[in-house]
């Protein structure tokens, strides 16, 4: 009977939500047509956009690069997924990037990109993104736009409250959405409560090279840690995480995790924990996680399995962690540019809750606690509340800030973005989105200095916005001009995968640092061939290594004989070009993995295992020159018993 | 004559700029090269404007059968030119000094200028010959053969001075900093000559008067 009652309450809420969304401004509006929106997003041929937007690819495991205001897609950067377009995750050099403690995992669910900062401002050196499914954090270089490092996060599951970074890129966090037994063990699921834990991982970033290392993990009570944001300015040194399922339910969470009137925002004083750890605090715990690093001069990634991780129990560090009661399963956890306000968007709450950092410190000072959870003090709601925005919409998710004292919150159920004022909590403007908006992004949103000219909303449902393409559509993003008092919808553009969240930055901060070629003289790949004189073919048992070069419009060598069925052929190919944007491709008939796309000055290796006798062609896949079609060669494959010696040639 | 001598010395010394700055510059722009490829011609050799320009020019030129751009050691000019320039600088400075102390006539300034002009014209003539050879002495196995309307093979000779369209490339050939410094230096030696002549004519005018007294 109790279960039935719970389910009915659940249905009631959903029914309320969906009927309410039919009121008000949900009818399709074409207000953009009445303005000069087209002019505002028009980038004439040959001209550059003013901003880069890095939109997560969600279940594509990628990060896509767009221009603003045009909405044009420039690049898809493979991060957690194999990418046949260039052989990432298939070539011998890049396979190691996708190694984990579970073995090779060629996909993930990439969610929240965040750009590195110095003194609270975007510095445009790297962008970080989390892999949600197999907990991982990746670092992508913003000079090469390639994934340079991936670290797996042990003791974690559903790496969702990631990858947000502190204001000097001291740490990137990886908070677990799902709590799990730590260490993992075989136990009844119904014994979840009190036995599962949530690991919040603080990953340090080397200021010079960006290399990541898990400094410590805070083992929190078994709640779900949904989203997070670092403090900044006055609250620098703190990190805030929203929680849901403080009920610690383990089944039918839509109902059972929606029972408490208030969940929490966990406030973590990471400077305090860092000090504790630096003084030898915490314990090293056995663990098993991969750390994959790509070297730009050897053009090769290596994967190392790490065997331990430092964990800390928050109850043992007085003053390090507090819980701020926040209504109704908060999702987004967003800190304003001054660092004073912490917005907790209760998904099921009618109002938006905003906490005050100053009031929080005062309440801590006065020890105004309302009990504790597993030894972590709970503050009183009224003592930390800065104010609330009354009835702004339905299903609040995420908030960003324009740097001019305004906040913009997305409402999933009522499909809209609402602009409101910090401090007075009054709603200033609202604009519909098409449809079911998740995150929104203002360039520099997670920093002390947002660039509040544009805002874009990332929508989950696209139906009827574009020409239909069958039952499944790409998601869509919508760009708004927020420079005036009222938001103005400028553009719809399709995105690839799930545009879960995005980071954006003015183009001038990074475009001049973008690398044009890899210098051959700096190529330290062990199997490079930097001139035709270096090319050769070497047999080592059944392994045959072909050291090959490519340049417009030939491979060297282009005729190779003496390969046998059952051999394992390694094509080590170096692109000799030193010209911007002149990659060459390599495709071998019958290769069971992928093609390669090799950048100027880069070396890549593809394995081919010939299974049939014959003379088999290879060719360049990237239309590189007037004689691209002629860029080809042959491999002669003889029977396994053949005694034909290896030979290779070009121009004979 | 003191002033003229100093100007003569400065003029000759300006030639030293040729050891630091390029004499000439040739830029090649095309639709697929929005940042044009370029070569800077120094008296000691040819360098790319950007690090890999020469390699990329050679890479493109192989389609039409042009030879690769010569290295410094492959052309006698690049070992001779620096010597000639150094010689002319030393000569100019000596003439200037002698002029300053009024040991030689201003006419030597003009003499230096004329010698430098003759050497310059010879240099340009040699440079043009090289351009002709570079642009028309093509590999018979070239991948792309373009003929003029009269059936003769097209020449890819870059212009000696100015702009020309060569297939898809816009080619511009102009003096560069070193060249401009050389022209300025030569102009100064001409100024020195003119100044020396003026002073000397004045002295000439004064002398007969003195004689009359
Ligand atoms: Cu090619």
TrEMBL record, chain A:
Its main location: other. It is an enzyme of class 1 (oxidoreductase). Keywords: Copper, Metal-binding, Oxidoreductase, Signal. It is found in: Cell envelope. The keyword Iron does not apply. Transmembrane segments: none annotated. Its EC number is 1.7.2.4. Residues 1-22 form the signal peptide. SUPFAM superfamilies: Cupredoxins (SSF49503), Nitrous oxide reductase, N-terminal domain (SSF50974). The keyword Hydrolase does not apply. GO terms for cellular component: cell envelope. One of its GO terms (molecular function) is copper ion binding. PANTHER family: CYTOCHROME C OXIDASE SUBUNIT II, NITROUS-OXIDE REDUCTASE. This is Sec-dependent nitrous-oxide reductase. It comes from Mariniflexile litorale.
UniProtKB/TrEMBL annotation, chain B:
Keywords: Membrane, Transmembrane, Transmembrane helix. The chain crosses the membrane at residues 7-27, 80-101, 108-125, 177-196. This is Copper chaperone NosL. It comes from Mariniflexile litorale.
